[in-house]
From TrEMBL:
Gene3D superfamilies: Cytidine Deaminase, domain 2. GO terms for cellular component: COP9 signalosome. Belongs to the peptidase M67A family. CSN6 subfamily. Transmembrane segments: none annotated. This is COP9 signalosome complex subunit 6-like. InterPro entries: EIF3F/CSN6-like_C (IPR024969). It holds the Pfam family MitMem_reg. Residues 40-154 form the EIF3F/CSN6-like C-terminal domain.
Length: 173
């Protein structure tokens, strides 16, 4: 999945309604529009599971490790920059460095853009997104397992089909 995908996918859903037209009951299809909203975590999990194959030879695990290493490096760099700003503000508070009102306004602006992590709405949103992500991951793993099982059944049927042509057993499924 790419970054330029929209976060809302539009699909069409039709359902049947019974209408009486000229005294004759008829079933007609009526279009029902709705949207499915996705978040980045869901797209990442769907993309990861969709490309995960046992025959990859570890390439999916290698890609995941590279992705996690990149995230770790980004978090480490962010942490070091926050530490520098924190030390600078502490030095300003102690009086070691003269007050810089422009810098203080920029830090305040940055802090106001951060989500309030102790609010009840944040906790509700976080838990909702977390549960949605877990559900999507579970469903994608279930789909992947179903696909693998289907491949196994196809191979099994192919094997027994060859034997039945030679007078062996018949197909299992």
């Amino acid at each position: 999945l790419t970054d330029n995908w929209p976060s809302i996918l539009e699909i069409c859903h039709y359902f049947q309604e019974l209408h009486v037209i000229d005294g004759i009951p008829q079933l007609i299809f009526v279009r029902s529009n709705y949207t499915i909203e996705t978040v980045e975590a869901e797209r990442i999990s769907v993309d990861h599971v969709a490309h995960l194959k046992p025959s990859d030879g570890g390439s999916a695990a290698t890609q995941l490790a590279a992705h996690l290493t990149g995230m770790h490096s980004a978090i480490k760099m962010l942490n070091s920059r926050i530490r520098v700003v924190h030390q600078y503000l502490q030095a300003m508070q102690r009086g070691d460095i003269p007050l810089d009102n422009s810098l203080l306004r920029q830090v305040l602006s940055l802090l106001r853009r951060l989500p309030a992590m102790e609010s009840e709405k944040f906790q509700d949103d976080f838990l909702m997104e977390f549960n949605d992500t877990l559900l999507m991951t579970y469903l994608m793993m279930f789909t992947n397992c179903s696909s693998t099982m289907n491949e196994l059944v196809d191979k099994f049927n192919t094997t027994y089909d060859r034997q039945s042509r030679r007078g062996g057993r018949t197909a299992f499924i």
